Backbone:
């Protein structure tokens, strides 16, 4: 099969995910995303991957995902509730950090964030969570200023989103609408942004449902891995003091630093103005930012 087969949920891949998720008793969606994050390391020319490699990667990620769920079992909701019954709350950092560092596909929280959640009315457990951080992506910030008049320092990034398996339909878009209302009260906040990565089978549906608009795209860079496990450039800088792979290999001879070699799809930047209507931008007019 190919990376495109896996991203698009072709039956051969979807059936493998269902089978492995059932054996390891982990959520299908979470397993899909984690596995898609790691498959580019295994892909050959044309994005081809053997079924045995896909199965092995699914099993590896399912085992780790199961351990992550067990580690924060006390925070995992097991009963579903209608969307109208869920309560919007500011989520304490200690709870948000546990969820994001264990269950989000990046397995990390963003420091300096506001954390929000929809919680169930019975046990007060978070069902859908997100964090909002000051935008640090200078490339996007410059384009926001040049094309949309967004002043520096007034764009905030929805940097993490996680929804548990019991979350009702439209929970993420409902949470985003609540977050928009709260962020209107922040003095230096004018626009919300987020990056949607189609390599992980994300399509931006929840953002569109919350009336966000796609304003631009950003050229993809290779995914980075440490001993076969994905690590973002930020995580590499925190752990090892930099993200230059040749330098890291020289300084850490017992550790395997690698990157994906097949072309990846660009990320989409969705935006939402906090006041007024968020203007739409025709696909042919959206800038592709190179880096």
Residues:
């Amino acid at each position: 099969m190919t990376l495109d087969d896996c991203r698009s949920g072709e039956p051969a891949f979807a059936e493998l995910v269902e089978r492995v998720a059932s054996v390891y008793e982990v959520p299908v969606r979470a397993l899909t995303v984690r596995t898609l994050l790691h498959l580019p390391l295994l892909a050959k020319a044309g994005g081809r991957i053997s079924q045995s490699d896909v199965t092995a990667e699914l099993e590896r990620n399912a085992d780790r995902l199961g351990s992550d769920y067990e580690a924060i079992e006390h925070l995992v909701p097991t009963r579903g509730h209608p969307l109208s019954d869920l309560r919007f709350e500011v989520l304490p950092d200690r709870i948000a950090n546990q969820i994001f560092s264990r269950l989000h596909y990046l397995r990390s929280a963003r420091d300096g964030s506001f954390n929000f959640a929809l919680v169930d009315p019975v046990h007060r457990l978070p069902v859908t969570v997100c964090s909002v951080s000051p935008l640090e992506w200078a490339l996007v910030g410059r384009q926001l200023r040049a094309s949309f008049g967004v002043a520096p320092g007034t764009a905030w990034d929805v940097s993490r989103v996680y929804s548990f398996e019991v979350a009702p339909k439209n929970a993420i878009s409902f949470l985003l609408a609540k977050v928009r209302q709260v962020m209107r009260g922040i003095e230096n906040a004018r626009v919300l942004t987020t990056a949607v990565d189609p390599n992980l089978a994300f399509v931006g549906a929840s953002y569109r449902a919350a009336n966000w608009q796609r304003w631009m795209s950003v050229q993809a860079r290779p995914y980075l891995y440490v001993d076969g496990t994905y690590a973002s450039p930020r995580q590499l800088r925190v752990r090892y003091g930099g993200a230059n792979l040749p330098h890291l290999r020289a300084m850490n001879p017992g550790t395997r630093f690698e990157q994906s070699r097949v072309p990846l799809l660009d990320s989409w930047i969705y935006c939402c103005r906090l006041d007024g209507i968020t203007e739409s931008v025709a696909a042919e007019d959206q800038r592709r930012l190179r880096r």
Notes: The longest strand covers residues 126-134. The chain has ten helices and eleven strands. The CA atoms of residues 219 and 285 lie 16 Å apart. The radius of gyration is 19 Å.
